[in-house]
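Example 3.
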Amino acid sequence: MTRSLGFWGVAFLLPILHFLLHVGLGLGAWAPDLLTVAVLVIAREVRSGVAAGTGFGLGLLADAFSVLSFGANALALTVVGILGARSRDLFVGESVLFLTFYLVLGVWLRWVIRWLASGGRLGEGAARVLLMEAPVAAFYSAAVGTVILLMTGAWRREPVR
Amino acid sequence: MPHFEPDINDSGGRRDLVLALVFVALSVLLMILPSVTQQQLSLAMRSTVLAPFLRLQETVQQARIRSGSVLVLQAQLDSALAVLHSQSTLEEENERLRTLLELRARGSATFVSATAIRPGTQGSESMFLLDVGEADGVEVNAPVVVADGLVGVVREVGPRSALAMDWTHPDFRVSAMTVGGAVFGIVEPRRGIFREEDRLMLNGVPYHTSVQPGVPIVTSGQGSVYPRGILVGTIDSLAETEAGWRRSYWLEPAVRPGSATHVLVITGGVTPPADSLQTLWLPRERLPDDTTVAVEDEGPPPVEDEEDSPAPGIDLVPPPPEDDAGASNVGPGPEDLEIEADPGDGVIDALPEIAPGDTVIDLSPESLDPEP
């Protein structure tokens, strides 16, 4: 592990902030998807099994409010966690541009998987969700996530000794 | 340039892969669990890890409500008190008369007030939490209403909380009718491009019945979930017609779910008197007398003038020929209703001539529910 303690602190606080904004303050769609951001940043630092477990646990919490598609969030975040962990083998990057792109792709993927898992079908609804709602949510969440990670210094690596 | 860490050896990689697959399998398992188990799991999480967030939202919600106009609240309280006072004497009188007639007591709906809390997480867009539960008499499938009409229905109940879905949920359905029951249909939601554009549609209206815009649509009481008479919406426009056998209408919803922060849950089972809730949403003078209109059953109903319509805003148009339409799916419209009364049974001495639009009270022994 080369990340600072601050990184893990921020990674731990992101889900709390997510539920605080979504549930506590009831902001709904106005609040960014910091749960996926948390899974994505943790997944870059841990093995795929741990990343899957993190995604599963946080997804289960998100599923506590969805009755008719229970498990869809857990599945989506588990898969996102696994892919996030495996992405280290494919992409190496620490730049802000990489981080933003990584978060955008991850949040969009989470939306797609969740939509498919909750019985989404191709058609007019699919275009709306996949090409309009999901990209907007992805860019918004990625922007907020990037700002939080940069402002707290969590994305900065410890110097290699 | 940061360094790259190949941190996975072969055995560790395999173990990780297995662990990841186990979690994927667990996620899939969650989705196929029986709904009772799913409910228990979600309830467990809501009452433990997520409880602080829910309590915070409840506090915020209460603060918002308290910050509302005191004058408006005072006016509402005065109105409620006035109704309460007038109804207490009526209730007593009703009870006395029913005792005199040896009729058994009617089951009546009771209302439990609750605060509606929106979870705001992905996948919970049409759901809301209520701060009342089993301890308050709330049951699964209990209707949720506000002063304007129907909001939704309870799906899960915990000891002190409940999870409900509003009418924008894709699985929401309610059997509905025009006030008085001349036209029946099923109301279901239709998603708009944005959530604010979600609308309701009244489906399955018989083709020969035309409903005018502005006609109120209420729950029919069929299906044993919603009591009869809760306002669902008003007819907006004709949505579609299907090959001469049915029509669908867009409804202007009575309630926008997002605006419902304080709601009422109907408890005590859904067996109130047939017309008991109707007057809560629509004043008596607006109720048309179309429940007992007698129309000749022989042959297709004639095209009627507006004055002769069974209810304001409802037109009967001739059904298409049998050859074109096949078997037409005609609901229990006015032409199907017959009035049964035996002049010799001592209840009605003389059966007067009944004209369309007249109100007729059914006094047959079956309808009076005599004491067993």
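Chain A touches chain B through 54 residues (CB under 8 Å). The two ends of chain A are 13 Å apart (CA to CA).
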